[in-house]
Structures are given as structure tokens and as C-alpha cells.
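Q: Predict the assembly, please.
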Amino acid sequence: EPEVTQTPSHQVTQMGQEVILRCVPISNHLYFYWYRQILGQKVEFLVSFYNNEISEKSEIFDDQFSVERPDGSNFTLKIRSTKLEDSAMYFCASRALQGSTEAFFGQGTRLTVV
Amino acid sequence: DAKTTQPTSMDCAEGRAANLPCNHSTISGNEYVYWYRQIHSQGPQYIIHGLKNNETNEMASLIITEDRKSSTLILPHATLRDTAVYYCIVRVAIAGGTSYGKLTFGQGTILTVHP
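A: Predicted assembly structure:
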């Protein structure tokens, strides 16, 4: 069964450092998403990406965040200068088409900022 | 997207049916009801979705009331591995406009299946 793959599973970084989280969406999917979940809190939407551009973003997704699809397979989330409060699980998701199709989530990257 | 209300937690005995309710009284005509679950800290997992008809798949059944203001997710024979947080989400059917298919998660229902 096809799946969304995220790497690394756990990333520890020092405050102020840049970090890149990587995702390989399901191959024929067209919509890509990043969500995050701070420990003990809700899953929060960060950004959606379609046709090589951001289609929607939340208030959380400020200038410190960026997304990119550098090739035909990878989808990345970059945090330029990490803060302690960026510590969270980050989930990538992808979806096939418009309409009511479901989103498939990766297993997440646990980001710890120290 | 319409807001949903779910109980904070529920218990179920292993092998019995788990019935998880969800209220979505402000749902619009073009919004689907989706159910996802999250086991421990894993990524959310899609379970089922529906518009107005009852739906069934290999994981669960979804019963939507005729007025579409509430729904129930049924796990027919719950196992210990079904212990998870279950999220009921309503979302517009067509991506585009102000929503490109994002999912808005609430707190969900913590389902605990016990032996």
C-alpha cells in the first residue's frame, strides 16, 4: 500500500538553527500539506501546496517557514531560525484530487529544539 | 468549515461495538463528514467519510442522521489496537476557494478499548 514517508523520524536542533523536514508524498497525489502537533495539543494545519505554489497557509506559517517541492518526489518544510516553541511533531500529508478524497499522513518528524 | 462536538472520552470492551457520536449542527450542504484517528503520536489515519448516506468500509461504518446534524462512527468489533483519539471533521467537498482540502482537527474523542 502506498504511503507518505517522512525523514528524519526525530530531529534535535539548537535554537536559532535552520532545519529541513523532508517528505515523500504518494506518487500520483497533487495536494500536499504540513501539519504540526505540539505535545498534548491538537493537530494544527500549517500550509497546503498545489501546482507548485502555496494555496493556503495558517497564521502559524510565518516568514520563518517555507515549503518547497525541489524535484518530482520530495516535499520539504524549512524552518529558518528555530525557536523553542517550534518543538512539535510535524506531519506531512498528501491527497490525490479535488473532491472528497481522503488525505494520507506520514508518521511524522519529532522536532526538538534545545 | 463547520464546527464539530465530540465527547472527550469513551470506553469500550474488547469485541464489542464502539459507537462514537459527533454533532455538526451547522454543517452545510456541500460539506462531507470525515473521520480520522490518531494512535498514540502517529500520523492521523483516515477511517471513513460520507455526505448523507450511510457508509461502510473494512474499518468502520458511518451513520449520518437524515438532517445531517449528527453522525456516529461504529467500530463493529473493537480491539485493543483501536485505542486512539478519534476525530470527526467536516470539510467542503470541493477544494479551492478558501479551502484547498485542509483538515481542521478538534480535540477528538479518546477511545479506550479494554480487555
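The interface with chain A takes residues 32, 34, 38, 41-46, 49, 51, 87, 93-96, 98-107 of chain B (CB under 8 Å). The two ends of chain B are 37 Å apart (CA to CA).
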